[in-house]
Amino acid sequence: MNTSDFNGRGLTRRGFMGALGGAGIVTLAACDNSIGTNGGAKIDARVNATLNQLYASYPEAQSLAAKSAGMLVMPLVTEAGLGFGGAYGRGALLINGATVDYYSHAKASFGIQAGAQQYAHVLFFMTQDALGNFRYSPGWVAGANIKYAVLNEGDRFTADTLEGTSPIVAIVFAASGLLVGATVEGSKYTRIVP
Asked: Among residues 7, 153, 156, 187, which is most buried (max CB within 10 A)?
């Protein structure tokens, strides 16, 4: 009997280990996608808590929400870098207050950077076209067409933010950590199944 046979059935140790490794990768991929778990319910709970925090801290954000065609809420984005950097988070797209899809947020960066931070952000799609472009693209990348909500000295949004005509308004808040300047430009948003 050949020493590379396994149980005399022609399955080599290498083949057995490869099959075992492949099964492990499939299992890990399933865990990452939260298949068979309550991943959607967890994201929804975090989204609701994030919106409550946003509205409590900045009540004017409710008027943006009321005017928007939809909102992408990312409850927790973790960003870290040391020369090369990246960010990742998961959230939900809400239309009329109901979750319609789940998304991941990923960002890569390179430059003079060191540290880590966490933050939440909400993208308000102010037109149906902007919302449609987001929903029906295979992987939407945030660009320079996003207007960032600006706070004045009294922690209030400026009138320009609330009455502006930008198709997408971003609010980045609840930042903590050592990196400076949380933005969503260059981020890729991809629909996921939690």
From this structure: 187
Whole-prediction pTM: 0.72
Question: Does residue 142 sit in the same domain as residue 63?
Answer: yes
Q: Note whether 72 and 122 are within 8 A (CB).
A: yes
Q: How far apart are CA 181 and CA 164, in angstroms?
A: 22
Residue type, 191: R
Burial of 22-32, coded b for 16+ CB within 10 Å and e otherwise, reads eeeeeeeeeee
Residues 68 and 154 in one domain: yes
Q: Are residues 146 and 105 in the same domain?
A: yes
Together in a domain, 45 and 28: no
Per-residue pLDDT of 143-193, as tens digits, reads: 767 777 766 555 566 555 556 678 998 888 877 765 555 566 678 899 998
Phi, psi of 181 (to 5 degrees): 85, 60
Number of Cβ within a 10 Å radius of residue 179: 19
Low-confidence ranges of the chain (pLDDT < 70): 1-37, 82-83, 109-114, 144, 150-164, 177-185
Residues 102 and 9 grouped into a single domain: no
Share above pLDDT 70 across residues of the chain, in percent, rounded to a whole number? 63
Range of the domain at 131: 37-192
Q: Locate tokens 């948003």: which residue? A: 189
Q: Is residue 106 a contact partner of residue 70, using CB atoms and an 8 Å limit?
A: no
Cα distance between residue 182 and residue 162, in whole Å: 21
Domain count along the chain: 2
